[in-house]
């Protein structure tokens, strides 16, 4: 009887250990198999030289940049819930933006921008809130929440009692700080487990692929849709694999990989047709930057990331337009645009989430510039950081970027931009954030 009771009490530890063993096996398999096994019959002709930046202590100016980014999280912190607004002064958030806050919080602690006490109090409060969120069908987090009331809301922050569905990519993103906490801050293991025990992560994985949920067009309920395109799909899957989930198919590149030559560089694109699959195949900087900053990238994503970067450098060399593109909030309608290397059949395309042309809002992205500056030691990344290092408010944080058309500032200020600025600076000093023993 005592043995049975002890076994029941230890079940969560057993599940975690089994999941960890599975994750280590998956990671080992990915890193040790031949590139051709990941990419099918597509191989790289030679090993590409990638100018990775070595770790070093931040300069005084860089440390001030980190403090500027933290201003955003001071200003937009909701004391009663422990969450942070996704956009300055707007009391709503997504799981992706909450992950950006948690990653910013972890980065600020690593850089000594905040004290250990502030870190502990804020992290514990956020995790406590995440464990008690109302969930879609009592299964998984909704796509958006009011940061004050914790109500499930739509993207206009209007309450929706049943939610509007979940995003597997966003949830995969928030599992990254959870993994960091488990490995580097074991004092939060119980709180992380409380969140994971409330969320049914397995519901968004089917035959090794990621599935989001959206409101059904034909019924009152929700429908599952395969979610993620090359870059984002593999990135979001990595954190799930580290928690023992079978996302092997989502982590492969070959199924839908197609190379397109953009500015003289063969970059990875997703050949799934947006008209058929109802999802756009954006090629942007962010997923590759986050993969490098957090995981250190793998043997394939490391090459893909550098190619996506190189195309942007080449565009600058060819046109004189300083280029670092990603999805970003705007300070004017339509308020959110994907600035891409390639999407929907066009190079250097800028579109809304519904696919409408947004060329007039092509921008230099602050977070993309910081990310490439952190990862690569090149003359061009120095140009990038020099172009964006004045795009901030001392009292509010970093702006989203600068418009290409007239050079004016895009004064949208967000959790995602400021979180990635902090991550980038923490990477410069510490290397990949999700590393055992990196605390």
Would you kindly provide a brief summary of this structure?
The chain is an alpha+beta fold. About 45% of the residues lie in helices and about 15% in strands.
The CATH H-level superfamily is Glycoside hydrolase 144 (GH144)
Number of domains: 1
Task: Give unreliable regions as ranges.
Answer: 1-38
From the spread of the alpha carbons, the general shape counts as globular
C-alpha-based Rg, rounded: 21 Å
- What proportion strand? 5-15%
What is the tally of helical segments?
A: 16
In the CATH hierarchy, the third-tier topology is known as Glycosyltransferase
- Biggest β-sheet: count, sense, barrel? 4 strands, antiparallel
Oligomeric state of this protein: single chain
Report on the architecture of this protein.
The chain is an alpha+beta fold and 439 residues long. The protein has a single domain (2-430), classed as Glycosyltransferase (Alpha/alpha barrel). 44% of the residues lie in helices and 15% in strands. It has 16 helices and 18 strands. A hairpin with a 2-residue loop joins strand 8 and strand 9 (265-270). The longest helix is centred in the first third of the chain and has 22 residues, at 11-32. It is globular and about 50 Å long. It starts with a helix and ends in a 9-residue tail after the last helix.
């Amino acid at each position: 009887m005592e043995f049975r009771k002890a076994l029941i009490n230890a079940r969560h530890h057993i599940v975690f250990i089994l999941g960890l063993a599975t994750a280590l096996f998956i990671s080992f398999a990915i890193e040790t198999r031949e590139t051709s096994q990941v990419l099918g019959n597509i191989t790289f002709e030679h090993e590409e030289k990638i100018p990775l930046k070595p770790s070093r202590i931040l300069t005084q100016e860089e440390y001030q940049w980190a403090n500027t980014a933290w201003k955003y999280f001071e200003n937009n912190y909701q004391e009663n819930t422990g969450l942070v607004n996704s956009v300055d002064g707007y009391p709503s958030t997504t799981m992706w933006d909450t992950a950006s806050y948690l990653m910013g919080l972890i980065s600020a602690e690593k850089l000594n921008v905040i004290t250990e006490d502030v870190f502990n109090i804020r992290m514990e409060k956020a995790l406590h809130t995440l464990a008690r969120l109302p969930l879609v069908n009592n299964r998984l987090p909704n796509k958006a929440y009011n940061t004050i009331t914790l109500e499930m809301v739509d993207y206009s922050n209007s309450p929706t009692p049943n939610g509007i569905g979940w995003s597997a990519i966003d949830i995969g993103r928030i599992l990254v700080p959870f993994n960091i906490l488990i490995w580097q801050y074991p004092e939060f293991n119980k709180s992380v487990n409380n969140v994971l025990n409330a969320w049914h992560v397995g519901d968004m994985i089917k035959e090794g692929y990621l599935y989001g949920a959206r409101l059904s067009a034909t019924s009152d309920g929700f429908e599952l849709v395969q979610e993620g395109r090359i870059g984002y799909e593999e990135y979001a899957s990595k954190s799930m694999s580290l928690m023992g989930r079978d996302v092997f198919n989502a982590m492969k590149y070959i199924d839908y990989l197609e190379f397109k030559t953009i500015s003289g560089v063969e970059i990875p694109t997703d050949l799934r047709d947006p008209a058929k699959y109802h999802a756009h195949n954006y090629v942007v900087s962010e997923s590759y930057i986050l993969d490098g900053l957090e995981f250190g990238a793998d043997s394939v994503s490391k090459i893909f990331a550098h190619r996506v970067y190189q195309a942007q450098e080449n565009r600058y060399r060819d046109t004189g337009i300083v280029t670092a593109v990603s999805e970003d909030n705007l300070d004017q309608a339509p308020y959110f645009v994907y600035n891409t290397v390639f999407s929907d059949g066009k190079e250097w395309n800028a579109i809304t989430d519904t696919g409408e042309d947004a060329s007039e809002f092509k921008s230099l992205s602050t977070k993309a510039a910081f990310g490439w500056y952190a990862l690569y030691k090149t003359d061009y990344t120095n140009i990038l950081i020099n172009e964006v290092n004045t795009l901030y408010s001392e009292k509010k944080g970093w702006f989203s970027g600068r418009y290409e058309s007239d050079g004016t500032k895009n004064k949208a200020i967000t959790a995602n931009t400021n979180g990635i600025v902090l991550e980038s600076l923490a990477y410069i000093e510490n290397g990949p954030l999700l590393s055992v023993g990196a605390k």
